[in-house]
Amino acid sequence: MEGKDTKIEETLPLTPAVLHILLALADQERHGYGIMQEVAAITQGRTRMGPGTLYGSIKRMRRASLIAESDERPDSELDDERRRYYRLTGLGRRALVAEARRLSNLVSVAQRKQLIDGLERA
Amino acid sequence: MIRTPHPRVLSVSDRAYRALLYLYPTVHRREYGPLMARFFRDLCWDALREGGLPGLAGLWTRTMIDTARNAVVEHMDQKGDIMKTLRLTAALSAIAGVALLAANALSIYSLLDIWWTQPVLDFDWTIVQIGFLLAFPFHLLIAVTLYRWYGVVRLQGIAGVPRKTLMISIVAGILSALGIVGQFASFHDISDGQPLLYEWVGVLLGFALVTAFQLSTAATLYSLFKHTARAGGPKLC
């Protein structure tokens, strides 16, 4: 278990692109365009990933075993077979949780130092 | 049915982006090129639908910046992968080469010792069998080295590998399979004790195959070592 934690620690802090992709995949499997749409929704359109950034990040995240290509496909009538779907791995989910905790701690510190308040967070 | 906005513009944009993909390393382009092109087409469709031609112009500006930045990142990433594989392959080639040299020296010494100092039918078969068993780990090491070499070829693309080295590797691969079969045949034939005449044929055939395998492997290892240890590494695309 310690080895696994060390591996997660090595991935932190996550880059914004990696964090956004992991967040987009947290609730369901998505293809590249679906990930981009979800990231745009999460960030209220402030983050727009280009094809180079998205697929470069996906490549490195697959290599680091944070995400994997999904074997299951949705209804073929509703979707293009050429699309590839991605899902979070166990390691990816743990890394995302660890990063969320790290960011949450930072927010708590910022609150204690009265840099932000509850209203601004909301 | 949703009508495609500006189909001609969409088509030109798609072709232009596919051309732009050639800025990426070959391996990355092969793996992700079609997905990136498809993704970009979806972005174009959205941009045209929501913002018309000015929207598409904005997308292209962002995409040029994205491509310029990420093509460089991918080339650097690729170079790191190749150099790591090359270093490992060179190290394995060197170790396998030394192991092969030691095994061959031992074999030659054993044969000379057997043929010149003892009667032909009075072999110490145990020693020969131990020799065969020792040879298997060497072959395994060589197989691993050849597998790493396959990794180098895959990373570099076939065009980055000298044709002579590639041909020698292919021949070594074929002979490797035959050599292992020969070695098993020899081992089986001599394991029962004093061999009969037809068993001698099997043993000699096995030796011939193993020797051919070892010679070709030595040539491959030398070629690999020369290629992979070269300063500066291979060309990337």
Describe the fold and architecture.
The complex is a heterodimer of chains A (122) and B (237). In chain A, helix 2 (16-25) packs across helix 3 (32-42). Helices cover 58% and strands 7% of the residues of chain A. By secondary structure, chain A is mainly alpha-helical. Chain A has a 3-stranded antiparallel β-sheet. In chain B, helix 1 runs parallel beside helix 2 (26-117) and helix 2 (26-117) crosses helix 5 (197-228). Chain B is built from 5 helices and no strands. Chain B is mainly α and 237 residues long. Classes of the chains: A mainly alpha (122), B mainly alpha (237). At the A-B interface, helix 3 and helix 4 of A face helix 2 of B.
Shape of chain A: globular
The major sheet of chain A is characterized as: 3 strands, antiparallel
| Unreliable stretches of chain A | none
| Main sheet characteristics of chain B | none
- Cα radius of gyration of chain B in angstroms: 28 Å
The total of helices of chain A stands at 6
What are the low-pLDDT stretches of chain B, counting only 5+ consecutive residues below 50?
Answer: 231-237
Largest interface: A-B, 18 and 25 residues
The geometry of chain B reads as elongated
Rg of chain A over CA atoms, rounded to whole Å, is 16 Å
- How many strand units of chain B? 0
Category by helix and strand content of chain A: mainly alpha
Query: How are the strands ordered across the major sheet of chain A?
Result: 1-3-2
Report how far apart the termini of chain A are.
36 Å
Assembly context of the chains: heterodimer
Order of helices and strands of chain B: HHHHH
What share of residues of chain A is helical?
Answer: 55-70%
End-to-end distance of chain B: 43 Å
What is the residue-averaged pLDDT of chain A?
84
Percent strand of chain B equals under 5%
